[in-house]
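Tutorial, part two.
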Amino acid sequence: MQTRVQRGLRLLRSTFARNVATTFLTQVVSLVIGVANAAIVARWLGPQGKGSLALALLIPATLALFLSGGIPAANVYFIGSRRLSVAQVTQNAMLLALLGVSGGLVLTALGLASGLLQRLAPSVPAALIVLATVGLPAAIVNSFFSGILQGMQRIRTVNVITFLQSVLTLGLTILLVIGLGWGLNGGVLAAVGAALGVMILLGWQVQRAGGDLRPRYDRAILGQMLAFGLRGYVGNLLQFFNYRLDLFIVGILLGPAAVGIYTAAVALAELLWHLPNAVSFVIFPKASATRPEDMNRVTPRIFALTLGITLVGGVFIALLGRQVIQVIYSDLFLAAYQPLLALLPGVILLGGGKVLTNEIAGRGYVHYNSVNAGLALVLTVIFDLLLIPRWGVLGASWASTIAYSAIFLTAVIFYRSVSRNQNAISRGRQP
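Running the prediction step on this input gives:
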């Protein structure tokens, strides 16, 4: 028995390591392409234009997450655990996607008519917001399709498509922003066009994997998917706002130019998340399909290694950050260096926290992450409102670091609770 367990653990580690390595390599290559894209946007549009572009694209991204209902995570869980077939999940997910897209378009129209979106994104033309909203269907559908492939552990397929999206975005940015001189409109169209292209590729892969893209209403299956998805939905929504609410607040209080500076600091700091994101992407479906006692042996080592590597990367970014800002963004963005330094401690800690939150989500304990994200969002709002008026963009960075540190601490507490409880249950079932 012990030999069989050891063989299973070795297989788990080797498969996991291979998938993480593939995902991480894809993210690194995509990062290089993304840096080139960021340099074009920064140098051709400047801080004001970069901030306006970020705010315009943030609106459909926020709506997509709000309207997803937690279904991407449900897709991963039910396919990874084999509780539902790929065809069943895909049919019902497509129905929910249609409803989500319809709702998103209505909400966008109401937001523009009432002036709410213009207040959330000051100085951003309404026409630019409408243009960005063209990408809303792709944002919703792509998250559903990616969850299906992730649940099937088709990690390589998702990685290839992620790489192609970064290439397509860069190519369209060069064509539209530089070649045709379309400015902000070109930047938005590049992002939207790449997302629509990826939607086609993902749909093709899902269909090849046994998915049925015809929408279908199945009350029992929809009930299961929504019940699971909504447990983690609140947490995902709150977590997104932890990451991006400060952009809206900075825009309202300080203007788009400050958003441009802040997004430069955020982009460099979040380079550290590429390895944790790769680990988290793989560990979610793996935890759904693996015995809890096996995950209890493997996860602490993965967590420690991920946190250690992220810390080393943070030291390098702190030392080289000023030079990197000059090379990529130009001297106009040097004001981003101090906010970058303030962000690094929180980003490093949250990198480790991501591993734990996705691992326990894969075990079915997504509601713990909702509690965690809710606490962090409260801290984000409080400290943003306290620190941004006093310290500007630097205050936004410190507020994020405080919130990210809280996520890390509570993630450790929740993981220890889940792993101990499942160990106790496992021992209780032994004869």
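The chain has 15 helices and no strands. In part three we will examine how such features are distributed along the chain.
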